[in-house]
């Protein structure tokens, strides 16, 4: 496997400061950053990379570089971070794709793999995605990876929408069946021991 996560078309690897100019193609782009307070300066992009390098060390995960396998092209970032969502610290999937590569399913493919990673490798029972109310592409990605809208709230005067993917609890029927089988086995064991 190349990188941390691999999908059909992509791999995700840790960001380094060498990604500065590529990452600024999305984070410093006014149109891409229209739902953020402002597009980032180059220093802010460097700070973003630094913050994620710290997250890899402290949390074991963060936003990773999204690379197209066929030509090693840098497409943007996607990954898992801990975010304060309406007062709760929750694992969140975030993504930023350079606009000339948008609407080709790359964010969805990367985010789906991050969701699986968050649940299978990191052991989270639920994973979230939140965005500005108007950020329809982000919400579309969340719903395409099986998340459901759970609430909206206001933060600093801006409306936010929260999506969630929760692993399903075992159905009560299955639980009962397992208990019944176990009880049956226990009874047999006791009977055997008494013989
Ligand atoms: C959000 C973002 C990462 C999506 O990346 P992407 O690679 O284009 O995503 P995908 O191609 O996997 O899916 C995008 C979906 O949004 C849809 N979409 C695009 N613009 C839309 C709009 N204005 N209204 C509704 N849906 C829209 C696309 O049609 C597509 O859905 P479909 O497959 O059903 O047709 C990208 O738009 C981006 O980088 N935006 C700027 C940064 C950002 O806001 N990140 C999220 C922070 S919360």
Describe the structure.
With 195 residues, the protein is an alpha+beta fold. It has one domain (5-194): Aminopeptidase (3-Layer(aba) Sandwich). It has helices spanning 20-27, 42-58, 106-121, 136-144, 172-194, and strands at 5-6, 10-14, 63-68, 73-85, 88-97, 126-132, 148-155, 158-166. A 5-stranded antiparallel β-sheet has the order 1-2-3-4-5, with helices on both faces. It has a 3-stranded antiparallel β-sheet with strand order 6-8-7. The longest helix has 23 residues, at 172-194. The protein binds coenzyme A. Residues 26, 32, 35, 94-97, 102-108, 131, 135-138, 140-141 line the site of coenzyme A.
| Structural domain count | 1
- Give a list of the ligands: coenzyme A
The whole-angstrom Rg is: 21 Å
Q: What are the secondary-structure elements, in order, as H or E?
A: EEHHEEEHEHEEH
Spatially, the strands of the biggest sheet line up as: 1-2-3-4-5
Stretches with pLDDT under 50, minimum 5 residues:
173-195
Number of strands: 8
Number of helices: 5
Helix/strand-derived class? alpha+beta
CATH topology, by name, is Aminopeptidase
Distance between the termini: 55 Å
The CATH C-level class name: Alpha Beta
